[in-house]
Amino acid sequence: MNKIIVSVIIPCFNHGKFIDDAVNSVLNQTCQDFEIIIINDGSTDDFTVSKLMYFDKPKTRVIHTANRGLAAARNEGIKASSGRYLQFLDADDVISEDKFTIQIRQLEKGSKYSLSYSDYLPATETDLTIAVPGRYLNPRFYSEQYLKELISAWEKGLSIPVHCFLFSTALFKENNIWFDETLVNHEDWDCWMKIFSLHPEVYYTDQKLATYRIHDNAMCADRHAMKRGHLQALNKQRRMFKNNKTLYFLILKKIIWVKYIQEIELNIGSIIRSLNKQTKS
């Protein structure tokens, strides 16, 4: 049995401004049996580098790598982990102090191939208690048809930030599952498709155990880059499921939505939010 219960993997690229919040949200957990693995993804600012030197302590270690992106940094963390469960946490986000306690209690009821996920709060950059209007999508599956919902509903009515999950490490290490380092984004969705293809036991807790910090200049604000990455991931999965007619055609439908419809829906949503603000003022 592993001595460590939870391995927390925190990729960090020039996020010294926020890393204290992320690490402290782990250090304050009611379950204290964890290790923190920070992957310095080739940070280029002196402030972040000096911050990460401070965090190199017995319960927290820092692995320095060249800048290769989120997927590669998470993979380095998986390789270095020794815990029974994996918690992914981006350097600018935080988790609730009782997240491990609540989700471990769920996972201990299941098999070694299991995962737990929670609700989340999309918060402003400067105040993690204030929700950002229009940035919340329901994280909960409506059925046990997980792959179908991941394909059809992702970014339409469904979104699960990476730190909502707590995974059995066996899902990754015993099935050779990694984040795809060739994808420009949507590497998390691609990974969830591989995970849910294994038919794990799935648990949900209807509590906001994760807080997702929204930046105005974040990559997700670059619609063209996100669209390109989403299509790249969808086309990869289309090839993976070419022998499954149901999922194959769902992916084709989703490709059409991403190519031609998503942008229109996003623009309409922006117009409606702008009109609502004008009405309120």
What is the average of the pLDDT values?
A: 92
Q: State the share of residues found in helices, binned by percent.
A: 40-55%
Q: State the major sheet.
A: 8 strands, mixed
What is the count of helical runs?
9
Assigned CATH superfamily: Spore Coat Polysaccharide Biosynthesis Protein SpsA, Chain A
Q: State the CATH architecture.
A: Alpha-Beta Complex
Main sheet: which strands, in order across?
3-2-1-4-7-6-8-5
Structure description:
The protein is of the alpha/beta class and 281 residues long. It has a single domain (6-218), classed as Alpha-Beta Complex (Spore Coat Polysaccharide Biosynthesis Protein SpsA, Chain A). 41% of the residues lie in helices and 19% in strands. It has an eight-stranded mixed β-sheet with strand order 3-2-1-4-7-6-8-5, sandwiched between helices. It is globular. The termini are far apart.
Key attributes of the depicted protein:
alpha/beta; Spore Coat Polysaccharide Biosynthesis Protein SpsA, Chain A; 41% helix; 281 residues; single chain; eight-stranded mixed sheet
